[in-house]
Design brief:
Order of helices and strands: EHHHHHEHEHEHEHEH
Family: Belongs to the HAD-like hydrolase superfamily. CbbY/CbbZ/Gph/YieH family.
Shape: globular
InterPro entries: B-phosphoglucomutase_hydrolase, Beta-PGM, HAD-like_sf, HAD-SF_hydro_IA, HAD_2, HAD_sf, PGP-like_dom2
GO molecular function, one term: magnesium ion binding
Protein name: Beta-phosphoglucomutase
Bound molecules: 6-O-phosphono-beta-D-glucopyranose, magnesium ion
Radius of gyration: 17 Å
Number of helices: 10
Distance between the termini: 9 Å
Helix content: 40-55%
Pfam family, one: HAD_2
Strand order of the largest sheet: 3-2-1-4-5-6
Number of strands: 6
Strand content: 5-15%
């Protein structure tokens, strides 16, 4: 095959999306307001800095530069306290079988994540050396929905954007894949991720036959 696969991390490979939500929500609560799970969809795939900007907008708050930085650090500290307890069991159901199939069939695959904690998390769940390339929040300057992260990943895998298959759980990430002219597969709800070429609730719903077909098409 001349095709390759790019995985988002949070909410696709591992269920860390829930930890991000808990940590951001605590930050908002400590600042005296709250936000909904629906609003949280807008934070998925978005960088740490842009997430805090959005949340402060919702709370109609402005922070000094120093306080902004301090809040980002506090959020990350809180988030990492959840991450510390992670192990292989946190790999989302059905993901391992897809990764095993790609490895067995020599299909190149990369990580394309906005997170600066990506390598740390992959290590915790024992997947760090499986990837042919890793592109994360420390490698990019433009956040999803900009296609930068996925274009760099495809380039590292030596595959063309139109031959790249992207798994994403966020609206911004699906848009980034579409902006890169890649094949986008949404993991989550159709009503949220309707812009994707295909949508599955989770990886247990993805048949290896489907992956095979996409790779040979
Ligand atoms: C994305 C998550 O993968 O990474 C966002 O969907 C998160 O929720 C972003 O804010 C940045 O992550 P980190 O780990 O660098 O704060
Ligand atoms: Mg995600």
């Amino acid at each position: 095959t001349n095709k390759g696969v790019i995985f988002d991390l949070d909410g696709v490979i591992v269920d860390t999306a829930k930890f991000h939500f808990l940590a951001w929500r605590k930050l908002a609560n400590d600042l005296g307001f709250d936000f909904t799970e629906e609003q949280n969809e807008q934070l998925k795939g978005v960088s740490r800095e842009d997430s805090l900007k959005k949340i402060l907008d919702w709370g109609e708050l402005e922070l000094s530069k120093t306080e902004f930085k301090r809040q980002m650090a506090l959020k990350n500290e809180n988030y990492l306290s959840y991450v510390a307890k992670m192990d292989e069991d946190e790999i989302l159901p059905g993901v391992q079988k897809v990764i095993d199939y790609l490895v067995e069939n020599n299909v190149p695959f990369a990580l394309g994540s906005a997170s600066k904690n990506a390598r740390n998390i992959l290590k915790k769940v024992n997947l760090l050396d499986k990837f042919d390339a890793i592109v994360d929040g420390t490698d990019v300057s433009k956040a999803k929905p900009d296609p930068e992260v996925f274009l760099i990943a495809a380039n590292k895998l030596n595959i063309k954007p139109e031959n790249s298959i992207v798994f994403e759980d966020s609206v911004a990430g699906v848009q980034a894949a579409n902006n890169a002219k890649m094949i986008s597969i949404g993991i989550g709800e159709q009503k949220t991720l309707g812009e994707a070429d295909y949508v599955f609730t989770d990886f247990t719903e993805i048949d290896i036959e489907f992956i095979k077909k996409l790779l040979t098409k």
